[in-house]
C-alpha cells in the first residue's frame, strides 16, 4: 500500500508495476433478461457525460508485447464485420436511451482500426454522426502508420474523425523489428510530419519504454524523434510483463531451459519486461523531463501535449467513470451504471446479429458479461482520475473520508511519493511513475480498513 522508504523512491518505492490498471471489486455478474435489455434502451440516461467505444478486432500482425491479438486481418472478414457493426450503430442511435444525452467523445480502437479500407472507415464515421454528439466532440481513430494512406486519412476526416492515435512504440528500426512492427525510423518520422501538417486534426503517437533491446540511448533518441515528428500529443507507456505475449512465452521457454540446465531455481531468467524496473523508472523520468523542458504540457501521468489542439478527452473521461456505450466484439463499457464486456469470439458475435421482431428496433444483445452497479464506483473513479492526473484536491472529498485516508497519504509522503499542502496532495515524479501502484494501494487500504461515516454510524 505505502511503498517502502528509499533514498530513490522513483526506482525502489515498489518492486514492479504488475498491472496496467487498478480497481477494486464491488460488482457481481448479472443474468440480464431480454426484458431488462429492452428497458435499458427505452430509459433515458442519468449520466452527465458520455462516450462511445467501438472495437475493430483485427490485426495484420501480432506484436511481441501484445496479448490482445484476436483476429487476423482479412478484407472479406473486415467488410462483413463493418456492415453488421454499422447497422447496430444506426439502430442504437435511434433509441430513447441514446437520444437522451449528448456524447462528448468517441474512440474507435482495436485491434488495428486503420486496417479497414477507406470506404469502411467512412462507413463507421458516418454511423457515429447519427449519434447526438456534443459540439466539438473528440472522435478518435486508433491504428498504425503502416498502410494508413492519404485516402484513408481523407475518408476519416470527411466522415468526422478529428483525432488520430498511432502506436509507434519505438522509432528505432531494430527494436521495432524485434517487436514485430512495420516500417523503419525514417518512414515513421516522415509520415507523422505529413499528417501533423493538417490544420485541425490532432495527431498522437504512443511510445513504449522497456522494450527488449531498447537502451537508454535508444530511448532518448525515441523522445527526440517524437518531438521532431511534430505530433500534437504523446503517450509514454511502460512495458508490462503480461502473460500470453510472445515475449512472455519466449521468456518461459528460456526459464525452463535454464532450470533444466542448472537443476536449480537460483539462476532462472525473469519474465518480461526485458528492461528492469529501475531502468524503466529512469526512462520515464527522462521522458517526462525532456518533454516538459521542451514546453509540452502534462495532462496525465503518461500523456503530454505540444499544444491545445490535443485534448485527450476520451482517456481522461474514461478514467473518471463516465457512461461508455460499447459496440463490437471485445468492446467494454458501461450502461446505466452496469459494467459490460462483449465477448471476443467473432463467430459468436456474428451469430447474435440476426434481428427478430422483438429486437429489430434496438441493439442486439451479443455474448458477453454484464456486472451489477458498483456502489463505490463514483468515489473510486474520482480517486483514479485524480491520481492519474497527478494530484488529489482533498477538499473535493468528504472530510471524514480524507481523515480516514490520511495515515496512508502521510506514509506516501514519507516515502517520497506525494507532497501534501493546503488540502492538495500532489504526486512527485516518483509518485506519477508508480501511479497505478498508488491506486492499487489506496483501494487495498479501503478494503482492509472499511470506512464508515459518522452519519452511517448514527443511523445504525
What does this structure look like?
Residues 251-271 are annotated as: Disordered. Residues 44-274 form the Radical SAM core domain. This protein is α/β, with parallel strands linked by helices and 460 residues long. It has two domains: 27-239 and 274-318, pyruvate-formate lyase- activating enzyme; 377-459, Arc Repressor Mutant, subunit A, CATH 1.10.10. Helices cover 41% and strands 18% of the residues. The chain is built from 18 helices and 16 strands. The chain has helices at 9-12, 34-42, 75-93, 96-99, 118-128, 150-158, 173-179, 185-196, 216-228, 246-262, 277-293, 313-318, 346-351, 377-389, 399-414, 429-433, 435-448, 454-459, and strands at residues 29-30, 50-56, 103-110, 133-143, 163-169, 202-209, 233-238, 297-298, 303-305, 323-327, 332-335, 338-342, 368-371, 391-393, 418-421, 424-427. Strands 8-9-7-6-5-4-3-2-10 form a nine-stranded mixed beta sheet. Strands 1-13-12-11 form a four-stranded antiparallel beta sheet, with no helix packed on it. The chain has a three-stranded antiparallel beta sheet with strand order 14-16-15. Strand 6 (202-209), helix 9 and strand 7 (233-238) form a beta-alpha-beta unit. Helix 3 (75-93) packs parallel to helix 5, helix 5 (118-128) packs parallel to helix 6 and helix 9 (216-228) runs parallel beside helix 11 (277-293). The radius of gyration is 23 Å and the shape is globular. The protein starts with 8 loop residues before the first helix and ends with a helix.
Amino acid at each position: 500500500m505505502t511503498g517502502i522508504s528509499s533514498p530513490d523512491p522513483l526506482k525502489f518505492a515498489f518492486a514492479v508495476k504488475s498491472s496496467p490498471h487498478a480497481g477494486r471489486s464491488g460488482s457481481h455478474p448479472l443474468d440480464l433478461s431480454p426484458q431488462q435489455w429492452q428497458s435499458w434502451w427505452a430509459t433515458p440516461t442519468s449520466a452527465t457525460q458520455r462516450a462511445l467505444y467501438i472495437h475493430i478486432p483485427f490485426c495484420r500482425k501480432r506484436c511481441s508485447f501484445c496479448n490482445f491479438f484476436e483476429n487476423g486481418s482479412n478484407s472479406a472478414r473486415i467488410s462483413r464485420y463493418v456492415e453488421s457493426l454499422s447497422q447496430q450503430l444506426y439502430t442504437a442511435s435511434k433509441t430513447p436511451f441514446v437520444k437522451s444525452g449528448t456524447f462528448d467523445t468517441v474512440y474507435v480502437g482495436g485491434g488495428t482500426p486503420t486496417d479497414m479500407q477507406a470506404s469502411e472507415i467512412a462507413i463507421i464515421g458516418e454511423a457515429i454522426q447519427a449519434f447526438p454528439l456534443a459540439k466539438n466532440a473528440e472522435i478518435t481513430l486508433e491504428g498504425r502508420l503502416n498502410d494508413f494512406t492519404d485516402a484513408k486519412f481523407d475518408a476519416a476526416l470527411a466522415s468526422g474523425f478529428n483525432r488520430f492515435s498511432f502506436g509507434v512504440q519505438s522509432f528505432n528500426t531494430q527494436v521495432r523489428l524485434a517487436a514485430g512492427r512495420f516500417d523503419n525510423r525514417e518512414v515513421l518520422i516522415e509520415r507523422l510530419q505529413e499528417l501533423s501538417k493538417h490544420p485541425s486534426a490532432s495527431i498522437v503517437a504512443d511510445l513504449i519504454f522497456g522494450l527488449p533491446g531498447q537502451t537508454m540511448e535508444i530511448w532518448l533518441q525515441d523522445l527526440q524523434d517524437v518531438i521532431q515528428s511534430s505530433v500534437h500529443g504523446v503517450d509514454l507507456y511502460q512495458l508490462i510483463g503480461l502473460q500470453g505475449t510472445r515475449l512472455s512465452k519466449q521468456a518461459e521457454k528460456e526459464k525452463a531451459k535454464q532450470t533444466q540446465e542448472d537443476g536449480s531455481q537460483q539462476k532462472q531468467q525473469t519474465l518480461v519486461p526485458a528492461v528492469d524496473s529501475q531502468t524503466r523508472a529512469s526512462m520515464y523520468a527522462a521522458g517526462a523531463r525532456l518533454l516538459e523542458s521542451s514546453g509540452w504540457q502534462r495532462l496525465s501521468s503518461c500523456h503530454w501535449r505540444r499544444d491545445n489542439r490535443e485534448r485527450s478527452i476520451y482517456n481522461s473521461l474514461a478514467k473518471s467513470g463516465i457512461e461508455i456505450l460499447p459496440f463490437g466484439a471485445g468492446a467494454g463499457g458501461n450502461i446505466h451504471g452496469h459494467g459490460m464486456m462483449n465477448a471476443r469470439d467473432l463467430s459468436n458475435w456474428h451469430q447474435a446479429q440476426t434481428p427478430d421482431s422483438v429486437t429489430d428496433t434496438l441493439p442486439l444483445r451479443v455474448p458477453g458479461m454484464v456486472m451489477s452497479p458498483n456502489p463505490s464506483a463514483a468515489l473510486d473513479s474520482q480517486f483514479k482520475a485524480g491520481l492519474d492526473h497527478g494530484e488529489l484536491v482533498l477538499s473535493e472529498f468528504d472530510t471524514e473520508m480524507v481523515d480516514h485516508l490520511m495515515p496512508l497519504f502521510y506514509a506516501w509522503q514519507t516515502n517520497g511519493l506525494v507532497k501534501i499542502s493546503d488540502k492538495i496532495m500532489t504526486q512527485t515524479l516518483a509518485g506519477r511513475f508508480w501511479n497505478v501502484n498508488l491506486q492499487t494501494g489506496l483501494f487495498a487500504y479501503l478494503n482492509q480498513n472499511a470506512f464508515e461515516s459518522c452519519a452511517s454510524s448514527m443511523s445504525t
